[in-house]
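This section describes the prediction task in plain terms. A model, or a person checking by hand, is given the sequence of a single protein chain and must write out its three-dimensional structure as a string of tokens. No templates, partner chains or ligands are provided. The sample shown here is typical of the held-out split.
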Amino acid sequence: MSSMPARSDFILTFACADRVGIVATIASTLAEDGWTITESQQYADLDTRRFFMRVRFAADREVPLAQMQAVLAPALAPFEMDWELHDSTAPLRVVVMVSKQGHVLNNLLFRAREGQLPIEITAVVSNHPDWRDVVQWHGIDFHQLKVTPETKAESEQFVLDLMESTGAESLILARYMQILSDRMCREVHGRAINIHHSLLPSFKGARPYEQAHRHGVKVIGATAHYVTADLDEGPIIEQDFKRVDHRSSAAELAAMGQDLEARALVHAVRAHAEHRVLLSGMKTVVFD
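The expected answer:
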């Protein structure tokens, strides 16, 4: 039986000051090195004069990531780009944090197991024991941490060390109900995603669905965003919503909201794992 031919498939993402010749340089550099562009998306922000691009390219030969980085670096250097190169065939390794509500975690576990998300969950961390059996059934390590004001720094360092030891590139807060410290937020800047139980910035704080019910809202939703030191103010990646009316009770709103939370986070994690999200200050550029 013949083996499959070697193939390399990469994704280049970058942001830089907008100027003439960026796309032409990328295309000619890849063509001269024998690569085929399979996907290409770009966006020029007229307000900031910044240019954003995502390019996926492939070839029927095996090329190490470091070697491809060396090929691109001289061509990209004149543009003073913030750029990254990723192997598109490698799933994004992530650590997930959760508290007592498991609807979002269960959705991530199922989709990762079924190959519906390009991620590999290396570990799950929680400040409660509730989801240990479920996580371990999936063959994933579960770590319970005692989080108090006295142990907060130690517990956060444990998570950072766990990410490093398992090769996890990103952190997913799947309804983890502890506020991360400023230091932790800086350590995971641009690679930690949180799900918030409303369309930010409305109805912050405790019992958002009861607040929404009292106000007679006509739309409820959920917001997936990058974690920053400004609580629930990080760059938004994805939002999902549903129209409601006066007939919905607070319990019904909460049930609908849980579905929206799970959906919004999955869409955000998929976009992040596929390297389709580029940071632009307090906003994001999310390519289709």
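For orientation: Residues 250-273 form the longest helix (24 residues).
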